[in-house]
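Thread: quick sanity check before group meeting

JM: Hey all, I'm pulling together slides for Thursday and realized we never actually wrote out the predicted structure for the chain we discussed last week. Dropping the sequence here so it's in one place. If anyone has concerns about the input, flag it before I start.
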Amino acid sequence: MKVIITGGAGFVGSNAAARYLARGDEVVLLDNLSRQGAVRNWEWLKRVRLESERGHLTLAQVDVRDVDGVLLAFQEHADAEVVLHLAAQVAVTTSIVDPRHDFEVNALGTFNVLEAARTLPRLRALITASTNKVYGGMEDVAVVERNGRYAYGALPNGVPETQQLDFHSPYGCSKGAADQYTVDYARIYDLPTVTFRQSCIYGPRQMGVEDQGWVAWFCIAIATGKPITIYGDGMQVRDVLYVDDLLDAYDRAVERIDRVKGQAFNMGGGPQNVLSILETAQYVAQRLNTPLHPKFEAWRAGDQRVFIADISKARRDLDWQPKVGAYKGVDLLIEWVVANKELFE
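JM (edit): ok, ran it. Output follows.
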């Protein structure tokens, strides 16, 4: 099949592209190559394609804010069957500094992609990568401290999709708008869309930085001797999901699109794959036999003390669950960072 991946030279996009190429699919990356590591991921994908001699790989160097460029790219690949919309501005901190840019990339960019997707006659499925930030600070949910971590006072399975939406920060607003447009285009235009409210996704080819991709950033910083700053007290908790498990969920959504179109799914590691910020840094330092001397700074705006996704709906409707445990996944990421240190020095 033919797949269009917006943000296809990014972390998740490049992993998805490699998977499709291995199957012999035709992959179209729609990416402006502006993010750190995007050019390197594009060069890597070209090598993957040459070495495997399978599939077909094309780059449309387009910004999702460019409505004419997006529409032209989709028209040039009108036989595409699947669209993964992964292009985004991904940092809360950046959205606060430049909310217009954040809005134009996340909200307007998603609108442009949805409108272009309406022109695809063979479209089977369109998946939008949303975020757990659509639930905001969840001030109505009690948070307690247990064993050096924050935890929910209730919600033993984590946050369900029925949790009230509450967009905090410009990033939360722009991604929330994209999330709801994706859901509504299934209702209004019968477009086969699904939105995944993703928690902390991590894995190889993630060029993590301080304000986005924190698991990868800890691995990179500790492996290369860079300083680490922890904002808040480090007891913040996230459910983490290895990128291969996320891609499995994408596959299941495409396979079951008639059943799940127009729906939102919380997509994370769930209660069985929970890490705290400080514990993760300590674990990586231990694995790399490196002293850890983090600097602590004030809490950042929009930071949730806890987010754990209830993935029961994905288990039921997608017949999916994570396969890679949290520490196993971190070990795999450490191995990749160490083997590719030249990318970060």
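AS: nice. Residues 2-343 form a domain with the Rossmann fold fold (CATH 3.40.50.720). The mean pLDDT is 95.
JM: adding both to the slides.
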